[in-house]
Amino acid sequence: MARPFLLLQLSDSHIGATWGEGDPLRQTAATVEHIRRLPDRPDAIVITGDLADSGDAAQYVALSDLLDQLGVPCYALPGNHDDREALRTHFGLDGEAAAPVSYSVQIGPLRLVILDSTKLGQDGGELDEVRLSWLDRELSAAPEQPTMVAMHHPPLLTGAPAWDRIGIPEPERVALGRVLERHSQVRLVVGGHLHRTIASRLAGRPVLAAPAIYETALPDFEADELKLGGSAASYVLHAVVDGEITSHVLRAE
């Protein structure tokens, strides 16, 4: 069997944050070192948002310096803590400064479609008609190509009020599902934001919320506030085999 194409997914590094127990830069450095020790190195990286905690330029510089050690292409998208203009500047992304950061790339056998789900000034996400129309057109451009759609806010319901309050609103999640139904080449939808590994489905497609590098959230199906539980930084290694995607969650310890 041929070696699979390996796409590394990192999320929620929150460089510069002080609200958790650990040091986000140190945890990110430890994660990079853990990845460097893997038997098989990844072929590309996607970072699903909240790279920096306040959108400060120095935070992006510190993160990009660490990721450069892996020596593979890195594709970033914004989370609710990020600054779109700074993200574009430090990760070489095209587009107008404050416009949504949405784009597509062909990486090995996989097409990666980046969809900006952020709503400026809000923790919750947004998939308005403009962004969904863009996604529909982008998916229509390569109907035979196995595709992953990546965004910050995973389009799923957790059943936990604190998480669901800061997710994608139901009407927009349903509208996204209608777009996905028209494009059978989409193998997986991935996000971050929730600081925990959570799997679900939307319109018959798998949805995976990746764990965080900085802090882990604990499930609570009654509380209105998020509960944090520390623990080791984690990440996802997606293996593309014969046009399908298998996702492995690893702890950086």
Could you walk me through the main structural features you see in this protein, from its secondary elements to its overall organization?
This protein is of the alpha/beta class. It has a single domain, classed as 4-Layer Sandwich (Purple Acid Phosphatase, chain A, domain 2). The protein contains six helices and 13 strands. It has helices at residues 24-36, 57-67, 84-91, 129-140, 161-164, 170-181, and strands at 5-10, 44-48, 74-77, 103-107, 110-114, 147-150, 186-191, 198-202, 205-209, 217-218, 227-228, 234-241, 244-251. Strands 4-5-6-7-9-8 form a six-stranded mixed β-sheet, with helices on one face. Strand 4 (103-107) and strand 5 (110-114) form a beta hairpin. Helix 1 (24-36) runs parallel beside helix 2 (57-67) and helix 2 runs parallel beside helix 3 (84-91).
